[in-house]
Amino acid sequence: MCRLVQLLSLLLTVTVLGPRLSADRPNILFLFSDDHAIKSISAYGGPLAEIAPTPNIDKIARQGALFVNSFCANSICGPSRATILTGKHSHKNGFMRNGNTFDQNQWTVAKTLQQGGYNTAVIGKWHLKTNPVGFDHWEIFPGQGSYYNPVFIQMDGTKKRFEGYATDLTTQKAIDWLDQRDESKPFFLMCQHKAPHRTFSPALRHLGAFDEVQIPEPTTLFDDYANRHPTLARNEMEIDRHFDWAYDAKIRKDERGELKLPKPDRYGTPEYNRMTAAQKKRWDAYFGPHNREFLASFETGNLSHDDIVRWKYRRYMRNYLSTVKAVDESVGRMLEYLDQHGLADNTIVIYSSDQGFFLGEHGWYDKRWMFEESFRMPFMIRWPEVITAGSKPDELIQNIDYAPTFLDMAGLQTPKEVQGKSLLPVFRQQSDDWRRSLYYAYYELGEHAVPQHFGVRSQDHKLIYFPQTDTWNMFDLKKDPGEMRSIHADSRYRAVREELTTEFHRLRQQYEAPPFASQQR
Ligand code: SGN
Ligand code: CA
Q1: For ligand 2, a single-atom ion, which residues have Cβ within 5 Å?
Q2: H or E element: which one contains 66?
Q3: Which domains does the chain have, with CATH numbers?
Q4: Which residue, judged by its Cα, is nearest atom 13 of ligand 1?
Q5: Beta strands in 8-50 (DSSP E)
C-alpha cells in the first residue's frame, strides 16, 4: 500500500511538474581544505571544541547534516582527491600514491556534471599532476602550492604569481568566478584550499590569535608505541623527533646565534623566503620576540625533554589553528555571497577535507594511518530543501560516495563502475540497508616511514593488515578509542576477529582489490 502511494506521488510529480528544468537544479558548492582534522572543528565536539575557530564551518553543520562517521579510502592527498572525482578506490582510479599521475581520460564526476548542463569550476589545490578536465574554468596551484604569494596555473598553461595569502586568494578567485559564471546553468564549484597543510603558515592578521588560549594536550602525546605494530615506533612524524625547527617550528637558523638546537633541522624556510619585505617584517615582529624568549630559556639548560616537546606542540597547534581560522573566514565569505545573491536556498553547500590529521595524538603530526585521527574526514552538508537542519547521521560514509551523491543531487545517472553510493537515502533517513563496514588501503612506501597497510572498519572495531610483515592489528573502538592496544591476539575477541577477517576479504573481492604482492614495489 505504502509503495503504491509512493509510486502514485512519483507519477504525479513527473507528469504534473515535468522533469526539473536545468536552471532549477541545485547548485553544488564544494568547500574543501587540506589536512583538516575533525577535532579542530567545533561542531565535531571533543577536547578542542571550545577553542576551534570555526563559527562559519559550524554553521553548515547547524543548518544541515554533520556526518559523524565520515572516512577516506586512502589517507593521503592526491589519492583522496582522485577518489572524490571518480567515486572509486585508489586501485581502480590508478592514483594510489602522491607521486602518481591522474589519468584524465577516465570518467569523472566533473565530466558528467559538465555534460549534464552544469557550469563547472575548480580553484585552488588540485595535486593530481595532469590538468583538470571536465571544468569550464580552473585555476590551480602547482603541486602542493604555497601559503604566501602563491603561483596559480592558468588555463592556457602559464603560471602567474599573486601577492597575498593563499586562502584569501583562493576565496577571491572563487567569488570572481561566481560573479561571471553562466547564470543560465546551475553551477558546480570546487573551492579547494591549501590550508591547514604543512608548513602551517598563518595569515599575518592571525599571528598571535591563539597566544592567550590554553590548548589541551592529547593524552597520547608521549605514546610509547607498545602493544601495536613495531613500525609505529619507527615512524618519522613525531613532534619530538621529526618536527623541524626552522621549517615547522618557525625558528630560523639566523635567529639562533651560536645556539645549537637538538635535531631535526633538515629543511629551510621556503614560505618565509617567498614573502615580501613588508610581510617578513610583520612575521618577524610576531615570531621574533617569542623565539628569543624560547631560545633564552633553552639556553639556561633547565628545559626538560618533555618541556621542549610541549613547547613545540603548542607552537604547532597555534599555527595550525590560525590557518584554520582563515579557512573558516573563507567559508563565511562564501556563505555570505550565497545569501547576498539569493542563492542560499538552491545551493547545496558541502565542507570537507582530503583526510584527517594528527594533532599530537601518538606524539604525531601528519596522517596516512588508518587510525581514527587521519582516517576521518570532516563531512557536513547543507541543503535546505532536503536535509533536516542539525541532523547527525552516523552511517559509515567514505569519499567514494561523493561523486554518486553529487550526480544524484543533480538528477544525473551514475555509471555502474562507480564504487561509492549516493548519500541521498541517508539525507532522507531511508538508509536501512546501508553498508556496515569500510575498506581502507594505504600504498605509499616511504614518506614519514608509514608502512603500507589495508583494513576494514565496522561501527565498533577495526582490523589492519600489514602485508610487508604479514601481521595484523585489531582495535576495540568503543573500549579503546585512542587505539593504544591491539587486541588481535586476544582470545576474548576471537569471534570478532573471525568476522572482521571475513569481512575484509569480502570487501577486497567486492571492490576488486589487487593482490598485496603486486603493490610492494
Ligand atoms: C609533503 C609534506 C609531508 C606530507 C606530504 C603529503 N612535506 O611532502 O609532510 O605528508 O606532503 O601531504 S612538506 O615538506 O612538503 O610540507 S599531502 O596532503 O599532499 O598528501
Ligand atoms: Ca592532504
Answers
A1: 34-35, 77, 354
A2: strand 65-66
A3: 24-200+323-432 (3.40.720.10), 230-316 (no CATH), 452-519 (3.30.1120.10)
A4: 198
A5: 27-33
